[in-house]
Every structure is written in C-alpha cells, then in structure tokens.
Amino acid sequence: MTRPALPARTPWRQLQDRIATGLITAAGIGVLLAILAIGVFLFWETLPLLTRFETLSLERLSPLAWGTLKAAIAALVVALPLALGGAIYSALFMSERLRARIKPILELMEAVPGVVVGFVAGLVLAPWVERHLASALALVVWLPLCAVLAGLLWHATPARLRGWLPLGRAGLWLLPWMAAMAVLALWAAPMIEQRWLGDDLVTLLDRRFGLDYTTRNTLIVGLAMGFAVIPGVYSLAEDALHDVPRSLMEGAQALGASRWQALWKVALPMAGPGIFSAAMIGAGRAVGETMIVLMASSNAALISLSPFEGLRSFSAAIAIELPEAPPGGLTYHLLILAALVLFLFTFLVNTLAETVRQRLRRRYRSGGGR
Amino acid sequence: MKRCIRPDRPCAHLALWLLLWLAAPAWAAAPVSGTLGATGSDTMASLVLRWGEALTARHPGINVQFQAGGSSIAPSALVAGTTRLAPMSRPMSPEEREQFQRRYGYAPVELRVARDALVVVVHRHNPLKALTLSTLDAIFSTTRACGAPAPVSRWEELLPTGDWPYGRIALHGRNLASGTHDLFRQRALCGGHFRDDISEYPGSAAVVAAVGESPRAMGYTGYHHLTPMVQPLGLIDAAGETIMPTPETIQNGEYPLSRYLYLYVNVAPGEALPPAERAFIELIMSEQGQRIVRAAGFVPLPADELEPLS
C-alpha cells in the first residue's frame, strides 16, 4: 500500500499525533493485559484445587457443565432457525424500504436487558406454560406449519391477487395470518387435550411416561435465551448475506436458476463462513448469559436429557453462590474453576468466530471469486 | 404459658428491671452522633434498616449504613475491622471464632437479638396441613438421616385419600451458600444431603413466589417471608402433636425449626463501646426495638432474654 501525500505537518500536530497514537496503543495493550490478567488470576486461584487432583471437583462441576451446554443448545435450537430464516429473507428477498425499517427494530431487541427477559420468562412465561403446556407445544409445531401453508396458498392464488400480496412485503401480510393461526391453536389445543388425551398434558406426561415437569425448565430457558440470542445472530448473518455481491445472485438467476436455487447454490455457500461465525457468537452469548438462565431455570444441578427438567449453568452458579462463598473455601475454589472453564470456552468460541469472519471479509474484498 | 428457658437466671424480675432500666431516659443525655457501619446477613437486612431508621429518629446525628451480603461475609468483615457490628442469621462457627480470637486476642460478644424460624410452605389451596420431621427429611434428602424408611417424592404418598395435587412434589429451596440452606440441612435433614432436583433460588421471596404459583410445589423459607400465596405446614413432633409456626411456638422454641438471630460485636473486655454503637444496641434491646422486630416479620425475643451490653 502506498501512502497518499500528506500536507506538511507542523511539529505541534506531529506531537499531537504521537500522543494520540501512544494513548490508543497503550489502551489496546492495557485491554489485552487485562484479559490476560483475568486468565492468570483465575488459573492462580484454582491451582490449589488442581494440585490436589480430586475427583470431587469433576463430580461437582459436571452437572454444571452439562447444564450450560444444555441451555446453550436449547437457545440455539430456538434462535438459529428463526434468526437465519429472518436473515435470509430480509437480506435477499425483502423490499429494500421495508428492510431499512425492520432491521434496526430487530437489532433493538438486543438492547432488552437480560434481567428483563429472565424476569418475564421466569415469572410470566414459565407459570403460563406449565398451566397450558399443550397449547404452548401446539404453537411450537403449528406456527411453522402455518408459514409453509401460507406459502402453498400464495402459490395457488391467481396472479391478479398476488399483486396485492407482494413477496417483498410478505413479512407484513403474514402477520395477521400468523396471529389468526395462533389464536386458532390456543382455542383448539385445550379441547383436543380434553377430548383425545383426557387429561392435562403435564399429568399425562407423568402418568404415561414418568416424565417430571419442572416449572422453570429447559424449554423456558431455550425460549427466553433464544429470544436474547436472535438479534445478534440475525444481525451478523444478515450482514454476511447482504454483502454477497448482488451481481452473483443476479447472474445465477439470469442463467435460469430459481430464487431458491440461487439462494442454496450461490448466496449460502458464499456467506457460509459469516453465518457460521454468527452462530458461534450466538453460542458464545448463550454460554455466557447469566441472568436469563438464573431466573428462567430451576438452578437444580441435574444431568438429564429431558427438556421439561431444570438445569444449572456455570454462570448462574457463580452469580448465585460466589457472593456468599467464604473466600478460600472449597466452594469458592470450585466456583473459580467454573469461571475459568467458562472464560476459556467463550474465549475460544469468540476467537474462532472472529477468525472465520475476518477470512470471509478478505474473500469478499478479493472480488467475490471463489 | 411462658416458660423460663434458662433456669439459672431469675428471669421474671430481672426482665422487669431491665425494661425499667432501658425505658429510663438514658438517651436524653448527651446528643450522640456519627456513622454506624454494619455488615452481614441479608435475611436481617430489612430488620437492621428499620432499627437504623428508628435510631436516626431518636438521635438525628446517627447515620446507619448496612451492607447486606450474607451471614458468611460478616465474620470476615469483623476480623478485617471494617465494622464492629455484624448481624448474622446463624451462630459463628468455631473456625470463624478462632479467626477472630487470633486477630484480636478476645472473643467477639454474641448478642441474641430476635427469633426467627424456617417454615415449610405449600400452595395456599393444598390440603396438606402438617408433616412429621422424618417425612420432611424423606421428601428433601437422599440420605434420610432422620430415620425415615423410604424416600417420599410424590403427593399420593403424602395424601393417600385425595387425588389432588397429583404427581411429583416440585421442591424449591435456597442456594447452596446461603445460611438458610445450611440451617435447613442441619436441622431438618439431620445433617444429610439434599436431593439434587430441588430448584434453588438466590432469595427467600423467590422461593415463596415459586411455591405460590404451583399446587404441586413445596419449599422452605424464612418465617418473615410468608405471604398469603402460600400456607405454612405444621410439624408433628415425637408425641404426635402438630406444632404450627406461630409467634408463640417460635418464641419459646417449641417449633423445631426455630432459631435465634445474632448480632456480633467487636468490643474488647473492659472497653466502652462508642456511643453510636451503644445506642444501637440499647435500641435493639428496648421494647421499641423488639416492636420493630415484630413489624419486620420476625419474632421478638422472650422478655427475659433482653440483655443490655455491659
């Protein structure tokens, strides 16, 4: 790279520049050192535990590790389809004007504090789902089906009518349709429950399958944390997809590819690494998220696969116990070890995501070739 | 029926004397001022703050600052010397005492300031009224150290006649590091281990809220956290008598899960307390102080246990 010719600098401006550069460099190094110091501190504090090499720490931490993983998986199962679907639609198919409005609104979701999400999930959503489990599950299955149904119906409508329902604005006219379908499901589910199952679904799960139902369970955590993860994943994946050079998509369609083929064969492979890094950053957030898991889960240290049972994650355990754990005790050291594991994990996930994203950026810059 | 718990003390007239002594215009003397720091139990936070307000009303110069962080931070704050007053919801452990002794060369003064209890709560419509202590242990523990023959995990086993509530008992409790968790483990589980599927909450009010919203739930919490959403269970003693957690049974110790709340004071033998601290303790031991205890939802001390700091 050649530098453009700069205007002659006065010594004073040169000094200013030097000071500014020095400050910025110092701040950067400071941040790096701080991160390193956190790692060293955590490692130092867990040394007494590691040197003793007891199985106790493994025994106490493995339910927490499982809980963390389970919560993150649940959140991603909820968030990824919604966020990626939304990103694909708004980046490639939505009308530009609508996109300019919708995207900031979705990104605003990220500003909702975790405490508020956790509070609503734990105190409003969890008791409601426990009382209306059948309705809640019906919604989860029924709404995606309705979206597909809407697509089929749209295909079947005569072309004259389709002008009223443009694809680029499907996000708007689908809203009343989905709302109507949700109301239908909520109205029908209790009747189906009574008629065919003959009992409340929670009782039935217990009687028929011996499944335990906890009020604040993995399902609730997944929904709440999914909600929190969606904006981040959506925003990054949308950027990656929107940055796919238009010429490539248009070229593919000009050669006869359908919209669907252009999406699968051109846009997704191009933006793949970006989407992957978006998912990784979502996973990192889900693993590190504290307040939502704390408030929406039962905090019972269990190792179970059931989505209807509670969990306890590293971050929630640290938040609850550390203020009251006497420094230097066993609980304290175990919690610090948990913090170390959490730190390493989020560090790795974020580094991986960032590396992949940098590589993608380089690929776009080099002209979109493969 | 008031019983004298410590027969070694001539309780009745001593108490009367104390009350008279405390009601005397001791505070009317010199104006007391200063900032009073206290660190400790968050169970007692509301209580200490109310005492602080009353103290400020009495001596406008005094300003009470309370740092609530749990009973286990109180001893370290006391040892570090950042505070002279440490409210705790449990007695100090021998190790904590030892630490203090090593640092200062004398033992901290232990004052009993109020009575409290752990209560077992269920949903307000639950037909269950009382449990034996061993059944309670069988519900909450895996060890059954109190002698129950088999674990109890379902409502049908507790209420054989009714068909409601049905299913697994959803258990709710406090987090591992809290004093409430520890006390319940020692007193109700006979030192055993909790089951691992108990939902844990960082605060007692959250336990009550969770139990209040589900008919299948059972939990334990502090007496002062009771709300109309939940009903406390009585405990059946060895004689087959049901003891409900009421102010009387908690005050006289009949209710098995009752306890004292403590205030630990760092004062050397023979040293006079600073006037602000002295006024605070005098307030706690006064009739007004004990009225505040009741207002905060705890149970006042029996009259014969009000002791002044000498």
Q: Given the structure, what is the number of helices of chain B?
A: 11
Which structural class is indicated by helix and strand composition of chain A?
A: mainly alpha
Mean pLDDT of chain A: 86
Give the beta-strand count of chain A.
0
Specify the overall morphology of chain B: elongated
Number of strands of chain B: 12
Q: Main β-sheet of chain B, in a few words?
A: 7 strands, mixed
The secondary-structure element order of chain B is HEHEHEHEEHHEHEHEEEEHEHH
Report the C-alpha radius of gyration of chain A, rounded.
25 Å
**What CATH architecture of the domain at 34-131 and 217-365 in chain A do you see?**
Orthogonal Bundle
The largest inter-chain interface, given as chain pair and residues per side, is:
A-B, 32 and 25 residues
CATH fold name of the domain at 34-131 and 217-365 in chain A: MetI-like fold
In percent terms, what proportion of residues of chain B is strand? Answer: 15-25%
Summarize this structure briefly.
Chain A is mainly alpha-helical and 370 residues long. Helices cover 79% and strands 0% of the residues of chain A. By secondary structure, chain B is of the alpha/beta class.
List the helices and strands and how they pair.
The complex is a heterodimer of chains A (370) and B (310).
Chain A: H1 11-52, H2 55-93, H3 96-108, H4 114-131, H5 133-156, H6 159-162, H7 170-197, H8 201-209, H9 218-242, H10 246-254, H11 259-288, H12 291-296, H13 314-321, H14 330-365
Helix pairs in contact in A: 1-14, 2-9, 2-11, 3-9, 4-5, 4-9, 5-7, 9-11, 10-11, 11-14, 13-14
Chain B: H1 11-23, E1 33-40, H2 45-58, E2 61-68, H3 73-80, E3 85-88, H4 94-104, E4 109-123, E5 130-132, H5 133-140, H6 155-158, E6 170-174, H7 179-187, E7 199-201, H8 204-212, E8 217-222, E9 230-232, E10 234-236, E11 242-243, H9 247-251, E12 258-265, H10 275-284, H11 287-295
Helix pairs in contact in B: 2-10, 3-4
